[in-house]
Each structure stands twice: as structure tokens, then as C-alpha cells.
Amino acid sequence: MDEYRTDDEQLDALRRWWGENGKSLTVAVVTAVALSFGWQTWQASEEQNLRQASDIYQALLRNISSGAPEDESRKYADELINEYSETTYAQFAAFHLAAIAVQMDKLPEAERQLRWVLKHAVKGSDSAQLAELRLARVLSASGQTDKSLAILQSGEGGNFQASYAAAEGDVLLAAGRNDEARLAYQKAMALGGMEGSASSSVSRKLQSLMPAALMNDVPVAAETTDETENLSGQEE
Description:
Blueprint lengths: L3 H34 L2 H27 L3 H14 L4 H16 L3 H14 L5 H16 L3 H10 L6 H14 L3 H14 L4 H14 L27
Helix pairs in contact: 1-2, 1-6, 2-3, 3-4, 4-5, 5-6, 6-7, 6-8, 7-8, 8-9, 9-10
């Protein structure tokens, strides 16, 4: 599940974007609705709910960065999911719990958390697409190759089209379907949009699958440690 780390770059970028823009956007939407329909009481309640969710999420991030016991982080994540399920903070909390489950090799639990994100995220949003990418990898690691490929091949891709193709290549490679994996990696490189370790990883895998006579035609990604920043965003 090393490929899960490249998805972490995308999730970090999404978190940063939301930290910079999400709260102001949500408050703006709430204010517009309140002005349109005169729901001042509703507006105050929603703003308070958002602030509370933000405070809990910040506490979760502090726990994670400080290396606090996992039980404490899980407490904050569970509270967001159970009490603030309509906020994007709750979706980030579910991503966190899924990552913990993967690290502990509890793949059914990781699948459950990622399906929760898909149920609550706006269809086609960056959060939904990232959840699909991670779910596909979890299913593949569980030996459910067909279900994994079905997610990747039916997804919209959006800002993550190259990542979908790269993930498809990884799933096919793990299943021993090398020729199909090579085509998927070629598609990912042709689509572009990947940076840093993700692009380098795909390039290396593609080269390893190419016949020797064609090696010179394979594009080689430059090694870089830059994080993936190809999100058009939403959420803090």
C-alpha cells in the first residue's frame, strides 16, 4: 500500500486549500441562504456548528502532529463523524481513520470509512474522487481486483484523471496483468497533471514493463520532492 502515500500528497493539498478558503466559502453560502430566506436563526446555528467542527478538527490535527496516543485522535475523529457528519471536517476525519486502518492492516475498516466519505461527499468533488482512489487501492489490497477496477474505470476522474489511470495500472500490475498495466501507465503519463513522487513512480513502473526495444521512447519524470498541488479545491 505504498501508493497510498501519493494520495496523501493530494489530501494534504486539499486540506491546505480548505484551511485557507473553506470556512469563508461556507459562511458566505450560509449568509446568502439566510439573506434570501430570512433564516437568521438557522444561520446562527449553522455558523456555530461550523465553528465547533473547526475547533474539533484543529484539535485532531494537533494530536496527529504531536504524536499523541491514537485513541485520543480517534476520539476527535469519531466526534466529527458522528456529530458533524455534514461538514467536510468529518470527511477528513474519516480519511484519517481509514489511513490508520490501512497501517494496521484492517482493510475492511478502511473500506467502511472510505465508503462513508463517498456517501457524504458531493459527487464529483475532490473529496469524492480521492475517496474513490483510496477505496480502489484498499479493495485491490483485499484481493477484490474487479471491484477496484470498476471504481477506477467508472469514475469521472476530474482533477485526478491521471491519478485514476495510475491507480488502475497499479491494480492491474498487482493482479499480474502486465500488458494492461503498461497501457494504463502510458495513459497516466499522457494525461499529465502528476507531480513529484507520483510522476516518478509511474515513470519507473512504465519503464520496467516496456520491451527493451521501446525503452528510449518512455518519458522519464524528473525526480522531485514537490507535493502534488493539482487540486481546484474545496474546505478548513
